[in-house]
Amino acid sequence: MRIAIFGLGYVGSVTGACLARMGHRVCGVDVSPVKVEMINAGHSPVLERGLEKLITEEVRRGALRASCDAREAMRGAELSLVCVGTPARHDGNADLTHLRRAVREIGRALALAHGFHTVVMRSTAPPGTVRNVVIPGLERGSGRRAGRDFGACFHPEFLREGTSIHDFFHPPLNVAGCEVPRSARHLLELWKPLRAPLCLTTLEVAEMVKYASNAYHALKVAFANEIGTLSKGLGIDGREVMRILARDRKLSVSPLYLRPGFAFGGPCLPKDVQVLERLGRRQGVEVPLLSNILESNARHLRRAADLVLATRKKRIGVLGLVFKSQTDDLRGSPACALVQLLLRANRQVRIYEPRVEISRLLGANRAFIEKALPQLSRLLVSSPQELLSFSEVIVLAGTHGEFAPVVRSLRKSQTLVDLVGWARMGPPGASGYRGMCWVQPAYRPAC
Ligand SMILES: NC(=O)c1ccc[n+]([C@@H]2O[C@H](COP(=O)([O-])OP(=O)(O)OC[C@H]3O[C@@H](n4cnc5c(N)ncnc54)[C@H](O)[C@@H]3O)[C@@H](O)[C@H]2O)c1
Hints:
There is one protein chain. The protein is α/β, with parallel strands linked by helices. It folds into 3 domains: 2-201, Rossmann fold, CATH 3.40.50.720; 203-258; 297-435, NAD(P)-binding Rossmann-like Domain (Rossmann fold, 3-Layer(aba) Sandwich), CATH 3.40.50. It has 18 helices and 13 strands. The protein has a 6-stranded parallel β-sheet, with helices on both faces. Helix 8 links the parallel strand 7 (174-177) and strand 8. The longest helix is centred in the middle third of the chain and has 31 residues, at 203-233. It starts with a strand and ends in a 12-residue tail after the last strand. The mean pLDDT is 94. Residues 6-12, 29-32, 35, 83-86, 98, 101-102, 105, 122-124, 157, 159, 161 line the site of nicotinamide-adenine-dinucleotide (NAD).
């Protein structure tokens, strides 16, 4: 393919050189004549392992060149990649000045282009940027229509400085927010030789994936540092602690616990997080990340209550009370705390929980419920039908198999508040659907 690349900083120069190596004809564009001259002279504008050699070879082969002129770079190109900087403004918001300017230039060049063109945003930008800034800017500048004459995608970049050439050729995953089939085909063709899965999704999901991914990396670093600091204070080697923790690929470093849903609870997580926080306090060590985990969870629980209260309905039916489905363990169950919040807000609550028989609750389980929800025996109903005929709102707080037909038989007048986002549940009969921290009722993985 012929490819134009806007922005010859870290991302643009690495991408340009690597795409040239893959056999494409690449022309880079930058507002800096110095960077353009450097590329054309076979030099790398940034210090990156292996890049100087790659650029020298590809420029010599005629596969890579650079220009300050967008129109020249886009002549005959099927694809443009935008890799300009999107730094933080002083108020913390993303500064889209360079991006807007690049979009203007691409739009003008697109007006002269023949055939279909795909514009791919690789710069990190807040969700909504492609739909609300890039597409209108390109349409204004070119007089052409998105979807018909050109496609605009968001394709987050995950390479790391220092190992970026290796990362380019061995991506963990390619993600593209792309809603135009012809552009999706361009991207599939582009990445086919690398054999990394291409995850096609909506523009906004792809934009958000980039921020979520970087926030997650930052969170992991801060977490490891707090665990290390606490461990050091106790005379323990935190590096060994984290090395062992990271060896667990089933629970610790895995997709588990990474699904948006209801608040956590149970007999272990809340108390153990609290102990760590207290250990920090006793040592006089500040661990703000660990100290705020329970607060974050409490706010999530409050949001669940607000979601139910916002329906302005009086009679609430809760499906599921135990802290983990398929058990009868009520200890630390967030659903119990939710029921208390609803009762305090003067709602009438009924609960269907097939795993709980009050007369059979024993030991700590019984002690917990007597303290946390002493009125439970008055609230439990014995059948889903009883719950359905009582409730104006059904709150799905568990994932027992028995709940699926209950949700499906909701009446149009009833609202479903879904705290668990259970994909297998199927479409609810209720006309109103409120998801805990997602928008659509049926979750369909994009890739
Ligand atoms: N650096 C990384 O490791 C990395 C990794 C993933 C994603 N990103 C994202 O990629 C984007 C680029 O990052 P970077 O580190 O390469 O930035 P950079 O600052 O190194 O390079 C940006 C380049 O864009 C050029 N530019 C600005 N306006 C232009 C225009 N109108 N036309 C053409 N060129 C223009 C600048 O002169 C500069 O050379 C950012 O959004 C960043 O958040 C960076």
